[in-house]
UniProtKB/TrEMBL annotation:
The keyword Metal-binding applies. Its main location: cytoplasm. Its cofactor is Mg(2+). Residues 13-297 form the Phosphofructokinase domain. NCBIfam families: PRK14072.1 (NF010675). It is found in: Cytoplasm. The record marks K144 as: Important for catalytic activity. It catalyses: beta-D-fructose 6-phosphate + diphosphate = beta-D-fructose 1,6-bisphosphate + phosphate + H(+). The keyword Amino-acid biosynthesis does not apply. It comes from Dyella mobilis. The record marks D118 as: Important for catalytic activity and substrate specificity. Catalyzes the phosphorylation of D-fructose 6-phosphate, the first committing step of glycolysis. Uses inorganic phosphate (PPi) as phosphoryl donor instead of ATP like common ATP-dependent phosphofructokinases (ATP-PFKs), which renders the reaction reversible, and can thus function both in glycolysis and gluconeogenesis. Consistently, PPi-PFK can replace the enzymes of both the forward (ATP-PFK) and reverse (fructose-bisphosphatase (FBPase)) reactions. Substrate binds at T145, V146, D147, M193, G194, R195, E250, Y300, L301, Q302, R303. The gene is pfp. This is Pyrophosphate--fructose 6-phosphate 1-phosphotransferase.
């Protein structure tokens, strides 16, 4: 994390990567507003790293200060994102050389990549290639992922809001099921994101604390799915409470290591595509226990629900964007601004730099001490960790039509200087 002298001239390039969140644009606002305060011009890559490869850049200087401020409460990705993983330098050096060519052509001296594990890896590789090719570029990875699985950082911007949405949805849906259980639905199953780490599912546990409060069962990727134990728990809960709420991570696996929801395809990052674990579990409940059920798959709703965003999360998302610019201008390279918790109660946090090589291609899973002995719930330690992350509301401006007034940018293109390139 050595610092270098700041270049006399240059622009900053910002890009968003992977699945977007309710607060990723707050990070973009933090980047742009901080850079403007330092007199630095910011370009954004349209659709993530693909925009950089295609030389499809956006001049954020064409946006008013008011328009940039709206990003703080607007979900989605204002400049477009992508799922595109660069291969190794050895496997596809041409793409990396193209990136340096684009950066050089537009005098870009700072590159900020806002994403998860794969994005941290990309930023690290570009920083290494810049040195190898003699181009002065500082690369900063900016954290974002609803999965909360980045190493080093205490939590990931985007997670606190999806956690709040999940806890609220679990509570509200459970009140509905409880109302109808006598003559209708006995088992409700909510499927949430989380391929390898159960952080989002764990957040559902904040909906209730007593033994009979929902969710009655949480299924984590960190624990092997035991069909017999699951069915026994559902049956016992229905007999005792009258109904049962189940929250399941999409990535739960059986004893053979197979995803219950395996769809047989892979996404652009090479990750297994999952076809839905909730209907699989529902079919089990119906076949083995005969209970009437309902299941729900919030999918994009859980990560785009800005109306239910956590203020803590929105504040942290903005803070990492601000810090990323400050680190870049201070001459840091191949680092990421991470969140460090300094106190649980009262909850306090700060931003610190961490080396990308400590974060890239690493995955943080739920600690064993956060899961109850039977594997179906969260412990007091998990509650202490999770609860502060969903605190506070981040109000939205509403229009006369009763809908939120989200921002919309012009996204004016920068004139191309190079020949076309197809990634």
């Amino acid at each position: 994390m050595k610092s270098q002298a700041r270049p006399a001239t240059g622009r900053l390039l910002y890009a968003q990567s992977g699945g977007v969140t309710a607060v990723i644009n707050a990070t973009a606002a933090g980047v742009i507003q901080t850079a403007r305060a330092h007199g630095i011009k910011v370009y954004a890559a349209r659709n993530g790293i693909l925009g950089a490869l295609r030389e499809d850049l956006i001049d954020t200087g064409k946006e008013s200060a008011a328009a940039i401020e709206t990003l703080r409460h607007t979900p989605g990705g204002a400049f477009g994102s992508c799922r595109y993983k660069l291969k190794s330098l050895e496997a596809n050096r041409a793409e990396y050389e193209r990136l340096i060519e684009v950066l050089r052509a537009h005098d870009i001296r700072w590159f900020l990549y806002n994403g998860g594990n794969d994005s941290a890896d990309t930023a690290l590789k570009i920083s290494q290639l810049g040195k190898a090719m003699g181009y002065d570029i500082r690369c900063i990875g900016v954290p974002k992922t609803v999965d909360n699985d980045l190493a080093v950082t205490d939590c990931c911007p985007g997670f606190g809001s999806v956690a709040k949405y999940t806890a609220i949805s679990t509570l509200e849906a459970s009140l509905d099921v409880a109302s109808m259980a006598d003559t209708s639905t006995k088992v409700f199953i909510l499927e949430v994101m989380g391929r390898h780490a159960g952080w989002i599912a764990a957040a559902a546990g904040l909906a209730g604390e007593s033994a009979d409060a929902p969710p009655h069962i949480i299924l984590f990727p960190e624990r092997v799915f035991d069909e017999a134990a699951f069915l026994a728990k559902v049956k016992a809960t229905v007999e005792r409470v009258g109904w049962c709420t189940v929250v399941a991570s999409e990535g739960i696996r059986n004893a053979e290591g197979q995803f219950l929801a395996e769809a047989g395809t892979r996404d652009a990052f090479g990750h297994t595509q999952l076809g839905g674990v909730a209907p699989v579990l529902a079919a089990l409940v119906k076949e083995k226990l005969g209970y009437k059920y309902h299941w729900a798959l919030p999918d994009y709703l859980q990560r785009s629900a800005r109306h239910a965003a956590s203020k803590t999360d929105a504040d942290q998302a903005y803070a990492v964007g601000k810090a990323a610019v400050e680190y870049a201008l201070a001459g840091m390279n191949a680092v990421m601004p991470v969140i460090t918790r300094t106190s649980d109660s009262p909850y306090r946090w700060k931003i610190e730099p961490a080396s990308l090589d400590k974060i890239a291609n690493r995955e943080k899973k739920m600690p064993a001490g956060f899961l109850t002995r039977d594997g179906f719930g969260i412990t007091a330690a998990a509650r202490r960790y999770l609860s502060p992350l969903i605190q506070g509301e981040a109000p939205l401006p509403y229009g006369r039509d009763g809908l939120p007034k989200y921002g919309s940018l012009k996204n004016v293109a920068v004139k191309r200087k190079l020949a076309a390139f197809a990634p």
